[in-house]
Amino acid sequence: MTNETESWVNLETIATHLAVSTDTIRAWIKKGAIPCYRAGKQYKFRLSEINEWLKSGEAAKIME
Length: 64
Description:
Elements: E1 9-10, H1 11-18, H2 22-31, E2 37-39, E3 42-45, H3 47-56, H4 58-63
């Protein structure tokens, strides 16, 4: 077991990871559909949470 903490990534990185535009990510944030955190004026994401969100099928519901 490691004590390594997961890095936070920004909106642009998540958009690239999901192959969608940053505007799409912002729309999903506004709907409360994607797991994210707000740090000041910026949104931050954990890749592990995004990947779990994809696996759960929740992403497919909003991508229709």
